[in-house]
Amino acid sequence: MKYDLEPRGWIVAEETFDPCRTAKCESIFAQGNGYINIRCALEEGYLDTYRGAFITGTFNKAMPDEVTELPNLPDVTAMEFIVNGERFAMDQGTLQSYLRTLDLHTGEATRTVQWKSPAGAALELTFRRFVSLDNEHIAAFSVEVTPTNQDIELVVNSGISTRNSNTGSQHCVEGEMRMLPGGILRLMTHTNESNVPISVHCLHKFSAKPSESLPVIERRRFVGRYTFRLAKGQTLRIEKLTCYHTGRDLPFTVYGQQRGTTNPDIVAAAGDALAAKFADTGYDALLAASAKKWAAYWAEQDVQIESDDSFDQLGMRFALYHLNIMIKRDDDRVGIGAKGMTGEGYKGHSFWDTEMFLMPYYLLTDPAAAKTLLGYRWRSLPGAFKKASENGYQGAMFPWESAWLDDGEVTPLYCGADIVTGKSSPVLTGMIEQHISADIAWGVWLYYQATGDDDFMNRRGCELLIEIARFWASRVEWQDDTQRYEIKNVIGPDEYKDHVDNNAFTNYLTVFAMEQAERCIKDMPTQWPDAYAKLSDSYDLNALAAELQDKKAKVYLPQPNADGIVPQNAQYLGLDAIDLSKYKNQQGVSSIYEDYSPAQMNQLMVSKQADLVMLMRIMPDLFDAETRRKNFIFYESRTLHDSSLSHGQHCVLAAWEGLDDMALDMYRHAIAIDLGPNMKSSDLGIHSASMGNVWQCVVCGFAGLEWHEGGLSLRNHLPASWQRAAFNIVWRGAKLHVEVTHAGITVTHRGGSAVEITVDGQPVKLAAE
Ligand code: BGC
Q: Reduced to 3 states, what is the DSSP secondary structure of residue 613?
């Protein structure tokens, strides 16, 4: 990879080509707009190619024994180039030069290649592509081909294919293919179980007229075959303009009918109308419109970093690029996948990653977008009710992995090999990683702190809090011997450990969720009367408040032991310590599973990711300063950071603790998760939560942003090797610009309401304007 091209801090580049390692760049160069995401698979395809086009919300269950997942939709990226009868492929003939870039500022990816075919025809090729931020349905491609040492015959096969699958599982039926007037290729298909109609259109435009042009319909593939005779030095430009529509698109959804339309004609008509307009436009005009939207995004959202290493800045912008394309900001029927939509990893499902790792970014930069994420949880209540009742509980037990709104739990049951039994390892998170329900309550609390949005509380927030608290009230277990409520048999954030009791993170968050609901019941009649009217129709709220008050006071909250260490769970401090250096220095992930089975891991004092540290991160005032520091050091030394969620949160805490070198090291590890030298790290998609973490490292860590009940504070923790960090945030309607240097923190009010915040310990009032 190459990260120092000009303009510095904006260009992610690959300068060598390896046909066995193409998938990482497909993911990190993926392009999208929250509606669609297209992996940046090379047109001609290689051994390691995983083509992928994903549209938000189109979930489908390919086979009865599989879980629902985000389907890999028809592909438009494949193009074949036959030069004098030889197929263009960079692993054949001679590759004389190669450079591939993603310009984060415009969202355009380019590839320039000089190549000589085995028989000696030399070509220069330039490939460019983008997915539009201006019109979410459009993706466009441009290819320039110049023969440099002889005249050639060039045959181009390009169109649409339904040969894509999710690693073998086929979601789309073969569909109906036809050519429309004007040479537009159209493919209509639908998902085989959820019956979501999908239309894909594409139009090719050429700078020279093909000598022959033929529509070719094959099994699951519809291409145009175009033949050209090019003179030496003549450049042919091919433009491929495409658009996607599905029955789940917002315009086809009437409020309350969350699934949209299953009528393929409506979807086809929308695609036909847009594709017809392609005749009057071209790649450059469409790109300009999209780049303008990108420029507006950067003008508002850029986080500027001046440091002795320009990779620090690039890593941040890379995160911001993906944060912008992983969310559909106007649609609260859909969440954010753990890989965004940049690959099949985690099946497009949403996890606690959303509230804990991603939401802070959206909330402090575009609160309306954060509201849609909580809206997605509110609309998912039917699935959470289903899960609770299936497990004998009340209220809302949110799925660990979520897909479509009423799917309920969609965590797969098996994954990976157990090194001891040789069988597939069972995945228990869907059954017992339950803290997600409390995490969502925390998200509601944070949203309200940052916005004071009473309308949201009235319509959705209170209901979420009440239903979540009802779940926890039915979940906690009374222990006669200890005379307290405990929460047994769970998985905490540290997924190396299953069937643990009293995971501190889970227990503290449970009490927090109960407290918030109890407060909400108290405030509702005056503050949120509509919510009160609705919920008091369903429940005896006074009785519920009394129950919550009683139970929350009796839930066991783990305290520091004689050495000052808070037990992560009841078992942890009694486990066997082993030498972790081998795994701490691992290049990839999960290498410890090559030596130990999940059952054996339960006996080892080793953590996958921030667990107690995560608790101290989101509730920094739980313990005194000495206890916090001691526990941070104790648990970090036993943590393998085997989840992309881990480094970033450790960075924040390390910065707060004044462990400057460690904080910067953690930041650089966080940006290296996807951009680092490991060429297999991101094959199945980028790590969404890590993108949110990167933002949190700088804003919450180095600029020390903390949120409190009704307040916001900043504290200067700028790394010594950085000169400046600057960013915009929104807090309670005030738009603020924050600059952090070693001289201090400057906050400029950019508009909106007046606000009071705390800067380096000093309360300050910022008047409107
Ligand atoms: C982590 C979880 C996370 C999931 C999706 C797992 O490896 O342990 O905490 O939610 O990945 O990102």
A: helix
SS3 labels along 642-701: CCCCHHHHHHHHHHHCCCHHHHHHHHHHHHHHHHCCCCCCCCCCCCHHHHHHHHHHHHHH
What pTM, to 2 d.p., does this model score? 0.98
Asked if 60 and 68 touch (Cβ cutoff 8 Å), the reply is yes
Residues in the chain, how many?
Answer: 769
Distance of CA 595 to the CA centre of its chain: 30
Residue with token string 């649609």: 331
Question: Which DSSP category does 585 fall into?
Answer: T
How far is the centre of ligand 1, averaged over its atoms, from the C-alpha of 97 (Å)?
39
Q: Which atom of ligand 1 is nearest to the CA of 642?
A: 7
The total of other beta-carbon atoms located within 10 Å of residue 293's CB is 16
Preceding amide of 7 cis, omega within 30: yes
What mean pLDDT value characterizes the chain? 97
pLDDT digit string, tens, across residues 379-437: 999 999 999 999 999 999 999 999 999 999 999 999 989 999 999 999 999 999 999 99
pLDDT the model gives residue 393: 98
Question: CA-CA distance, 548 to 521, in Å (whole number)?
Answer: 10
State the closest ligand 1 atom to the C-alpha of 608, by its place in the atom list counted from 1.
8
Q: Which domains does the chain have, with CATH numbers?
A: 11-262 (2.70.98.40)
429 Cα to the center of ligand 1, angstroms: 10
Quick: pLDDT tens for 704-730: 999 988 799 999 999 999 999 999 999
- Residue 256: per-residue pLDDT: 64
Q: Is 495 part of the annotated catalytic residue set?
A: yes
Tokens for 384, please give them. 């959470």
Cα dist from 461 to 377, 448, 530, 649, whole Å: 10, 9, 12, 26
pLDDT value for 80: 98
Counting as low any pLDDT under 50, the low residues of the chain are none
Looking at 495, 515, 518, 636, which residue is catalytic? 495
Mutate to test the pocket of ligand 1, among 645, 647, 650 (most ligand atoms within 8 A of CB): 645
292: CA distance to ligand 1 center in Å?
A: 35
Sign of CA dihedral 479, 480, 482, 484: positive
